[in-house]
Amino acid sequence: MDIILLERVEKLGTIGDVVTVKDGYARNFLLPNKKALRANRANREVFEANRERIEADNAAKRGEAETKSKDVDGLEVTLIRAASNTGQLYGSASVRDIENGLNAQGAEVSKSMIVLDRPIKAIGMYDVRVMLHPEVISIVKVNVARSEDEAELQRSGVDVIAKMFEDDQAELRELAAEVTSDGDEDGDSESAADAAEVFEDAAVDQAEEGTAAKDEGTSPPSDANA
Question: SS3 of 3, please?
């Protein structure tokens, strides 16, 4: 379907552009939300007759959003959530959670303004976009942790998942060393070596699980808005 944009739409164009989109996207989102008009002759004439007013209204709203962005940019929302020992959340951190956290700090944003590129499913620090206006985007931090202490570590730049697995692997290697030492003293070095190998394998498996959990929770941006 050909449409006339009434405001800037990410990856499509800006006010007055005539673009082609899928019928479902136009009917279910752009048209009902008054972001576009069908690009027929009558609508083109209506748009051109009202272009100056539409652009003036957009400029006024953009100015208001730019002012508001000063109070939103750099805000941090801390979400304390239960998670597995690999950092995987039992559930996810939702757009509503972020909205509530921002508004508790006086941001005055709506759920539709928060652009979550992909559901947050692991502990960590995330940059999340807040679209105050189609041309004004603020970036906020979302700190998802299992405790306030853990959140503080992440705030200071510590990769909690990496640290957690480093600690686990160190503990397993220490146990392996103890088993080997005990086996040498008891004269059963072969069994001790086998046990030590098991601990080493467990350390490797845990490291791989931690990397997988981290990758899933911090996937590359997409166009989805959860």
Answer: strand
pLDDT digits (tens, 9 = 90+) for 50-98: 999 999 999 999 999 999 999 999 999 999 999 988 889 998 889 999 9
Rounded CA-CA distance 14/216 in Å is 34
58 token code pair: 């957009």
DSSP per-residue letters across 97-114: HHHHHHHTTT----GGGE
Do 102 and 39 meet the contact criterion of CB atoms below 8 Å apart?
no
Q: Are 4 and 18 in contact (CB under 8 A)?
A: yes
SS3 content of the chain, % helix, strand, coil (to 5): 50, 20, 25
Reading the block at residue 57, the tokens are: 């209204």
Indicate the pTM of the whole model. 0.70
Largest CA distance in the chain: 95
H or E element at residue 124: strand 124-133
Alpha-carbon gap, residue 47 to 131, rounded angstroms:
25
> Which amino acid would we find at residue 5?
L
- Run of H or E including 24: helix 23-25
Assigned token pair, 3? 């449409």
